[in-house]
Amino acid sequence: MAEILKNFIRGQWVAADDAAEDRNPANPDDLIGVYARGGKADVEAAVAAASAAARGWAAASPQLRSDVLRRAGDLLLARNDELGRVLAREEGKTLGEAKGEALRAAQLFHFYAGEAVRNPGEKLNSIRDGVEVDVMREPLGVVGLITPWNFPIAIPAWKAAPALAAGNCVVMKPADLTPACAHILAEVLEAAGCPAGVFNLVMGRGSEIGAALVQHPDVAAISFTGSERVGRGIAAGCAAGMKKVQLEMGGKNPMVVMADADLDLAVNACLNGAFFSTGQRCTASSRLIVEDRVHDEFVARLSAAMGALPVGDPLEAATQMGPVVSEGQLAGNLDYVRLAAEEGCEVIGGQRLNRPGSFQSPALFVGATNQMRVSREEIFGPCASVIKVADFDEALAVANDTPFGLSSGICTGSLKHATAFRRGSKAGMVMVNLPTAGVDYHVPFGGRGASSLGGREQGRMAMDFYTSVKTAYVFAG
After folding, report:
1. Distance in angstroms (rounded) separating the CA atoms of residues 292 and 289
2. For a surface tag, which of 11, 269, 302, 310 has the fewest beta carbons within 10 Å of its beta carbon?
3. Which residues does the Swiss-Prot or TrEMBL record annotate as the active site (predicted)?
4. Domain for residue 445, yes or no?
């Protein structure tokens, strides 16, 4: 029997009543570990631990908080190779992508180590004589962090680091599919000297652990990344409990390719945006909107590049696209491939690969329209619709015709088109001659519409969500 890796509550590793295996989607015989699956009682214990620690952590010196986060970043760097291999085995990213994500987690902790000692307020003159006004930021208390499977170390880091830097205590629930990376993060924070109860990890099913966090009266805020359907339920629960809420959900991100684009650059940007990380990114380019004058050449070039993309074991150096994260996710992807054909698309690729593991070849849905389900619903796999348009105005209109609004992009050699797209795109993030996926950690991340709700993540703006503003008036006499 494999050792059961436990939850982390009040600075102790705590067993749960249930456990689940974590297996490699590229090789089902590869057991990464057996991880505790907690329940409502574990959430109660974790929230109680966080509540007990909240006053001391909020009152702690900003330097102390900074030092803990800095050490955590250093430890993540020291464990980069190990963490990258675990991530590649657990989620299916290529080893290069996995190590890059692990590096990003360290960078995030180092960035927020700096933010811990930069908690700016304002001192303003009152409109009344003899009165002074101070505007201060204070931590919220206990925050619940619910993280997804597609970035199993970066997203836990970009939620936990600003929450801790602001002086909050954390209860984290990682995705049930990918608990290993979050378990390592708990080990790192323990080794970095994070006080007992300040960071707590409860692994398990979202329907049980997530719901318990949302409903708990002592949890002041919830930050969630995941599907739109689950996000809407969390939003409703937080509204009922008068909790602060931050949601990062789906995307149906457009990449416009104009006739004046460098086609080599455009093909590479679309190949990366649509198919790297197996298309399992909320910022993936899932709608390729192509001007008719270059449509056929673009499709031919992208199809050739897609067909040459090495799909295989993420631990092998030559691999550029790994497996789908699970059999359930793969089944959903293949359903959309069949739907694309039923809706009238020419489907290029997209079949399940005849080898052990959850492997699928990348897919293009050529001849798609923006009204088809495959062009409107998030697939979250290596599938992209190709939509032909007549000109820039139609391209922008099609790009904006979506309930989502996370990321968008354009490939063009025209400054006029680039400027007009940046101004006219109804997305939270706009890329010019770059893939729609790929962001920096020191600037805001987030979207509009059904993609996001609440304050932005990453960068200095992340601190806005994790703090409450207090305005103090003092009569100085």
Report:
1. 9
2. 310
3. 248
4. no
